[in-house]
Amino acid sequence: MGISAYTFFEQQQADRGIDLEQVKQQIKALKIETPSWGYGDSGTRFKVFQQVGVPRNPFEKLEDAAQVHRVTGACPSVALHIPWDKVENYDQLRSHAESLGLTLGAINPNLFQGDAYIFGSLCNSNEDIRLQAVNHVLECVDIARATGSSLISLWLADGTNYPGQDNIRERKHRLLSSLQKIYQAMDPHMRLLIEYKFFEPAFYHTDLGDWGMAYNMALKLGEQAQVLVDTGHHAQGTNVEQIVAYLLDEQKLGGFHFNSRKYADDDLIVGSTNPYELFLIFYQILDASRANDAGVRQTAANIAYMIDQSHCIEPKIPAMIRSILNVQTQFAKALLIDFSAVKRAQEQQDVLAAENAVREAFEFDVTPLLYAVREEIGVPVDPMRAYLQSDYGQRILARGKGGASW
Ligand code: AOS
Ligand code: ZN
Ligand code: ZN
Ligand code: ZN
Q1: Ligand 1, residues at Cβ distance < 6 Å
Q2: b/e per residue, 61-70, with b = 16+ CB within 10 A?
Q3: CATH class, 31-340 region
Q4: DSSP secondary structure letter of residue 43
Q5: Spatial distance between the Cα atoms of 82 and 301, rounded to a whole number of angstroms
Q6: Is 302 left (phi over 0), alpha (psi -120 to 50) or beta?
Q7: Spatial distance between the Cα atoms of 309 and 290, rounded to a whole number of angstroms
Q8: What's the CA gap between 299 and 347, in Å, rounded?
Q9: Ligand 4 centroid to 83 CA: how many Å?
Q10: What ipTM was predicted for this assembly?
Q11: Please, which residues have CB within 8 angstroms of residue 175's CB and are 6 or more apart in sequence?
Q12: Closest-lying ligand 1 atom to the alpha carbon of residue 310
């Protein structure tokens, strides 16, 4: 792929009225946070599989994450999970990150692994356990101060397995009052991102089962609380891009956990089964970033893009790189949408033309565009190949088996 492929592409897009310089700027500006837990051992609910070479501590997780950033230039921050990434001294972890060209990102509290949480955490009917859960999140707020993070991203495993097991409305009240204690402890620049999921580990009801429940909590808490959309957390067939559009319009979309899945919450490589869905999500975001309402534009500009993956059959670093490349590809395609053509077709109620104006952008090969962008920012044009050709994957084998796991 050389200059000629790009020249052809440039001409093709110029003919459609697409300003490629602006497109390139936007691709360069897209930053995606990777999760520390995506580098550690994981598995299914049946078994954790140990891979050779997995990081043994949070410092080594950052070193692996730095490789993803080195070859993509798109992943300068890493989400932490507490207590999986608990350390004595967060200044030290922070300087380690900085020495690798990284920053520490969203802090994810763990409200699902403590034995006390068998009947829930922030919704538990036992007040002591509820307080223990609140205190854990408050500790995470302190950690966020120490790491320089501005995001607390909260996912709850709370729910019930049987009708009548607990009072659904009482649990809702307990959740709100627990969240209010957390919200009040945050600094003004911090945001609380509330994640929802329709089932698992609870199988009858989940306390934050869908976007509406997360939205309602965020609305009651205030401006610093927003919803986090994990693409894998919906029932089959759910129109995720509509949820994205709706939350953007309400200025309540705070961030994403990107991943893909065929069935449940599999946390698989982003875009491996759902590339068109990912493209349509970006279509809604780009549409909102052109909205008349400045608040909606600002919400779109402040979205925290994060990966939530958990690899167990594939090597972790290249799997993360694959996801980043897939996100970039779908984002680049969405940037090729001719929004004025879409608008014209919508005004004329020309269904076929409108659908075509969206889909045709998806059908372009954006490889020459992404190569050009990477050349301009000084990263390898083919990040996957560059990583595989480096000896990093070999060198980490010396860590052996039995690394950090969840
Ligand atoms: C769980 O299903 C959620 O996706 C969480 O966001 C995440 O996987 C976990 O909390 C790791 O921090
Ligand atoms: Zn998630
Ligand atoms: Zn999940
Ligand atoms: Zn997920």
Answers
A1: 37, 81, 108, 155, 195, 197, 230, 257, 265, 308
A2: bbbbbbbbbb
A3: alpha beta
A4: E
A5: 28
A6: alpha
A7: 30
A8: 26
A9: 19
A10: 0.96
A11: 122, 123, 156, 158, 207, 208, 217
A12: 8
DSSP 41: B
Distance CA 214, CA 234 (A): 13
Neighbouring C-beta atoms of residue 309, cutoff 10 Å = 26
User: Hey, where are the domains in the chain?
Assistant: 31-340
DSSP, residue by residue, 75-98:
--EEEEEETTT--S-HHHHHHHHH
Ligand 1 pocket: which of 193, 229, 308, 312 to mutate (most atoms <8 Å of CB)? 308
What letter does residue 165 receive in the DSSP assignment? S
Per-residue pLDDT of the chain (406 residues; tens, 9 = 90+): 555 899 999 999 999 999 999 999 999 999 999 999 999 999 888 889 999 999 999 999 999 999 999 999 999 999 999 999 999 999 999 999 999 999 999 999 999 999 999 999 999 999 999 999 999 999 999 999 999 999 999 999 999 999 999 999 999 999 999 999 999 999 999 999 999 999 999 999 999 999 999 999 999 999 999 999 999 999 999 999 999 999 999 999 999 999 999 999 999 999 999 999 999 999 999 999 999 999 999 999 999 999 999 989 999 999 999 999 999 999 999 999 999 999 999 999 999 999 999 999 999 999 999 999 999 999 999 999 999 999 999 999 999 998 988 7
3-state class of 198 per DSSP?
coil
User: What DSSP state is assigned to residue 50?
Assistant: P
Element (H, E) at 230: strand 225-230
Reading the block at residue 54, the tokens are 């997995």
Q: How far apart are the CA of 199 and the centre of ligand 3, in A?
A: 10
